[in-house]
Amino acid sequence: MSAPGLTDDQLAAMSRMSGLEFLRFAFALPSDQRPAVIGDLFGMRIVSLEEGTASFSIQSLPTAANPLGTLHGGACATLLDSVMGCAVHTTLGAGVGYGTLELKVNYIRTVPVDGRTLTGTGNVIHVGRSTATAEGKVLDENGKLVAHGTTTCMIYS
């Protein structure tokens, strides 16, 4: 990882961090001191990061509308991919990476693009030597299920 504003010592320290430590450190950096991530595009906010679980929130904004005027499914898919992938990342050792191999999303209801908060939570199901699986849910601010999904991630050292 290279990022403007980070010293060589910080970069070296990050390479020795567990997945959970790395995420907590990287997300605590000001946006001008780290590379841009997909969460920046959606205004994602971290709700929690713990071993085996990650929770982020987004707002349903008109800029993410589909042609019918409701939230595009890609917003929930991106939120699910992010929380499930980061849940897997929290379980990995220093220097171990991952990538989404498969993503399955089920949409339950439409979401108006009126600024309501959606919260996605991902939980690890299994982490092996070469693959990991996780599941996730997206809830609206009233606790209603909007979407849910599963992922398989490749693990690479």
TrEMBL record:
Highest taxon of the lineage: Bacteria
Residue intervals of the Thioesterase domain: 69-147
InterPro entries, per database record: ACOT13, HotDog_dom_sf, PAAI_dom, Thioestr_dom
Pfam family, one: 4HBT
MF terms in GO: fatty acyl-CoA hydrolase activity
Keywords from the named record: Hydrolase
Gene3D superfamilies named among the record's database cross-references: Hotdog Thioesterase
Keyword Hydrolase: yes
Keyword Chloroplast: no
Family to which the UniProt record says this protein belongs: Belongs to the thioesterase PaaI family.
Protein name: PaaI family thioesterase
Source organism per UniProt: Aeromicrobium phoceense
